Structures are given as C-alpha cells and as structure tokens.
Amino acid sequence: MKNLLLISAKYNSGADCAALSLLNTLSNEAREKDRESYYKSLSGLARHLLEGPVFFQSLLKPAVPRNQEALKALGVIEGVSVPKGPLTEEQWKTFTASCKAADEALISFTAALKEEDLRAPVKVPFYKGNPEAVPLYFVLQNLFTHGVHHRGQISQILDELKIEHTYSSLKPELLG
After folding, report:
1. What global pTM score does this model have?
2. What is the largest distance, in Å, between two alpha-carbon atoms of the chain?
3. Is the Cβ–Cβ distance between 115 and 70 less than 8 Å?
4. For the chain, what is the domain count?
C-alpha cells in the first residue's frame, strides 16, 4: 500500500509542477480572471490545491507521533501559508515555490511512513463525528484525489481557452 501512495504522491507532484509551469506562461491577468468556476480564477484553483496539504498536515502529525522522519517532512508544510485573493506576479512566484515545497514534503512524508503508520487513526473534523477517525492511508488517498480533481478543473478551463496541455494524462514522466 505504501508504494501505491508514494506513486500517487510523486504523480501529484509531477502533475502540479506541469500545471503550474503552464500557468506560469499566462499573464497574471489571465491567471486572475474570473472563469466562473467555484474558485473563480485559475489562480484561485491553484491556491486551493495548496490548501489541501496545508490543512491536512495538521491532521497527519498526531497520527505518527514517533516517526521523526515523517514529522520532519510535515514541518516543511507547516511553514507554508496559502495567500488569499488575487496574486501579484511576485506573489505568484512565491506561491509556486510553496507548492513545490509542499509536494516534496508530501513525497518525503509518504516515503518515511512504515506500513503500521498507514493504519494509524487520523481524527477528521468533516464527518460530523461519524466516523471520528479514519486510517492514515485513507486521508492520504483523499488528499491525492483532491489534487487530481482540482487539476481537472484547471484542465477544463485550459481546454475552453484552447490552451494545449498534457499534465492531466497518466504519464510515467509525471512520477518525478
């Protein structure tokens, strides 16, 4: 199971890098334009991608209290903040560096896990107490699926703009 999660972490990192590289080619105005998606702009969707690891790292830490290597990896994400509202060109550059750091931290975190860690209970606030906790592997799988979902939304907007992209394909080179 750990190997599959590690593949997902690497895929997400590669796909995030490819998507952000493509968004880097757009003007700041094009990234910030309201595209009528839930998160409004391409930049808003990208910022929401970073919200996943930032939010989930606080849930993951208590699940692996004795795994120092995993905790160290999560420490990188702890220092990342997600900017709110439209970004300037300079803020975008800082933001993309934060995304890369968060993705690398998730790869390191996943690589540091032991098989028994994967079954550790993670208390989750979003199921209204039913269940109160789910296994760590379930949280990671959902975090990686979150990225696929929102990169798909970015993909749809790029399709509508007739901007060629390939980051949403299952390609081995996205495994980092």
Report:
1. 0.91
2. 49
3. no
4. 1
